[in-house]
Design goal:
There is one protein chain. Helices cover about 25% and strands about 25% of the residues. The chain is an alpha/beta fold. The protein has one domain (about 1-240): 3-Layer(aba) Sandwich (Dihydrofolate Reductase, subunit A).
Length: about 240
């Protein structure tokens, strides 16, 4: 394992981040998450904002530069005010796409049409859902089609996320960055989709309990890189078959 004791992430230039986080694979499913000092993936308020900070957001934004598409759950997309994905200037030369696509998973389609992601000029997110005969779902589907590219898949529960990734690949969106929330992260891990785990360990504790199941799933991955600063430990780990 390569470890860099940086003190501050300001000492790490974009080229070093690229050496640590870039990939030459033709396709990749990567997750990125922040975890509290006591193993919770949410802060006291049920978000991740209090666990993060400028250093974490810098890595967060670099990882976006390495993605074709950012995949999130519906609750995260709305509560964290997701919209069009833009790449920071310092990372443009390393970017796969200047504007990675945003893809949202929502089985119920219970989404607010006033959300930021539906109201940015010239932009529509991808919404992945499972086809249903339910009248409420049908009404939501027809309504959201005016705001987004809504993809209704017929796959059952156990292969639904695999079908999402297959559809993304058919759109030439082969480098997927999943940013959460914890429920979606647990689901993609259970579906054995994840090649690469990027984790930020915060030195801030949360009043929320540790997510033992998610921590257990992550323990199967082999850490290859670490950057240690005063506030965070950043790691990149690989599925055993890719390590």
């Amino acid at each position: 394992m390569r470890t860099i004791n940086a003190g501050s992430l300001d000492k790490i230039g974009p080229s070093t981040l690229a050496a640590i986080y870039s990939s030459d694979q033709s396709s990749m499913f990567r997750t990125n998450m922040v975890v509290s000092a006591n193993g919770s993936f949410v802060d006291d308020n049920g978000s991740s904002r209090l666990l993060s900070g400028p250093e974490d957001m810098r890595v967060f934004n670099f990882l976006r530069s390495q993605a074709d598409v950012v995949l999130v759950g519906a609750s995260t997309a709305q509560s964290e005010k997701y919209g069009q994905i833009n790449i920071r200037d310092e990372f443009v030369e390393f970017a796969r796409k200047i504007k990675p696509q945003l893809a949202v998973v929502s089985l119920s389609l219970d989404l607010w049409s006033g959300a930021r992601m539906f109201n940015e000029p010239g932009f529509q997110p991808l919404i992945f859902t499972r086809a249903s005969d339910d009248e409420v779902w049908q009404n939501r589907f027809e309504h959201l089609r005016g705001f987004a590219d809504v993809v209704a898949l017929s796959a059952p529960d156990d292969t639904f996320l695999n079908s999402v990734v297959l559809d993304l690949g058919q759109r030439d969106l082969t480098h997927v960055l999943c940013e959460g929330g914890p429920r979606l992260l647990s689901s993609v891990l259970a579906a054995d989709l994840v090649d690469d785990v990027c984790l930020t360990q915060s030195n801030i504790a949360s009043k929320r309990p540790p997510d033992e199941d998610l921590l257990s799933a992550l323990s199967a991955f082999e850490t290859q890189y670490e950057i240690i600063t005063e506030q965070f430990t950043f790691s990149r780990s690989f599925a055993p078959e890719n390590a």
